């Protein structure tokens, strides 16, 4: 009883924060989401370019540009936390952790905390953390609503939105994220000891030919961490990508209202999303969510209780 009263009091106090609703409205503005996604792509590309052999002047300019984007990420993080009522538990949400990692390298450098860490570990760790910014793209792919806002900001009409487009974007994002993160891990593990891996783009090339099973054999990892990253990436590729492609196929079949003549395939789909985990679409005759297993009509109440 006391715990419930404290929770209710905390919720009431957080709702009184000035500008909370305005902050939430600002963050869900389509143009803001597009700018945030663009910054995530640009900053990841800048990190990759800085691994090349560049002139000191160009390197400083690229680093300055990246720092400006990192400050934008930091301000966005604070505004997003403010919109959530400054609740400490909100900091443990997956997307809040990703947002924090986006500017953590800048925070470590500004506070001087990295001075107590061995330079090699510190530099490699910062490079990997900076490459994790690509995960911010997942925010616009969470739900049909967030993706529809993103499309609207890109100039598409709401009537043009189809469920299969979200699944296609998720497939492309999963492949891009897998390539980017794996290449980052391999680069940070190999470039100091492996002359065949001098920069990020070489690591990206190696990751691409490995995951596509081409395997020319011209580049090989020599460190245990690099070999482990390759193994994990292969298992992730053969487990995540087929699942995403399966969801894409179901969405496309449901979009066309197509029903196969085979009794083993039922493709009548509905755009209804589970109100607990937001998974969609579902079969028209489905009673339970295919992702979390909750009854579709019960998920709404649970989600509302969690959000409160």
TrEMBL record:
It comes from the Eukaryota. The keyword DNA repair does not apply. Gene3D superfamilies: 1.10.287.70. SUPFAM superfamilies: Voltage-gated potassium channels. GO terms for cellular component: membrane. Coiled coil: none annotated. Keywords: Ion channel, Ion transport, Membrane, Potassium, Potassium channel, Potassium transport, Transmembrane, Transmembrane helix, Transport. The keyword Transmembrane applies. GO terms for molecular function: potassium channel activity. It is found in: Membrane. Its main location: membrane. Residues 175-250 form the Potassium channel domain. It is a multi-pass membrane protein. It holds the Pfam family Ion_trans_2. The chain crosses the membrane at residues 34-54, 91-108, 120-137, 168-188, 200-219, 225-245. InterPro entries: K_chnl_dom, K_chnl_Slo-like. Signal peptide: none annotated. This is Potassium channel domain-containing protein. It comes from Chromera velia CCMP2878. The lineage of its organism: Eukaryota, Sar, Alveolata, Colpodellida, Chromeraceae.
């Amino acid at each position: 009883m006391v715990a419930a009263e404290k929770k209710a009091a905390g919720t009431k106090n957080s709702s009184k924060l000035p500008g909370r609703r305005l902050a939430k409205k600002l963050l869900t503005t389509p143009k803001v989401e597009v700018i945030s996604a663009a910054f995530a792509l640009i900053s990841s590309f800048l990190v990759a370019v800085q691994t090349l052999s560049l002139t000191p002047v160009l390197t400083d300019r690229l680093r300055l540009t990246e720092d400006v984007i990192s400050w934008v990420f930091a301000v966005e993080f604070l505004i997003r936390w403010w919109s959530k009522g400054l609740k400490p538990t909100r900091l443990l949400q997956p997307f809040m952790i990703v947002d924090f990692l986006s500017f953590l390298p800048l925070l470590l450098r500004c506070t001087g905390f990295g001075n107590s860490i061995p330079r090699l570990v510190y530099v490699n760790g910062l490079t990997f953390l900076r490459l994790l910014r690509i995960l911010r793209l997942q925010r616009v792919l969470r739900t049909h609503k967030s993706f529809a806002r993103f499309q609207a900001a890109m100039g598409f009409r709401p009537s043009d939105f189809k469920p299969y487009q979200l699944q296609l974007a998720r497939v492309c994002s999963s492949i891009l994220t897998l390539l980017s993160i794996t290449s980052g891990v391999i680069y940070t593990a190999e470039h100091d000891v492996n002359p065949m891996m001098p920069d990020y783009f070489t690591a990206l090339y190696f990751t691409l030919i490995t995951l596509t099973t081409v395997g020319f054999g011209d580049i090989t990892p020599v460190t245990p961490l690099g070999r482990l990253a390759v193994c994990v990436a292969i298992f992730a590729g053969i487990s995540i990508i087929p699942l995403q492609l399966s969801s894409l196929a179901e969405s496309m079949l449901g979009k066309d209202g197509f029903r196969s003549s085979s009794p083993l395939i039922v493709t009548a789909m509905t755009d209804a999303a589970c109100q607990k985990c937001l998974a969609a679409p579902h079969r028209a005759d489905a009673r339970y969510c295919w992702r979390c297993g909750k009854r579709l009509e019960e998920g709404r109440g649970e989600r509302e209780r969690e959000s409160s």
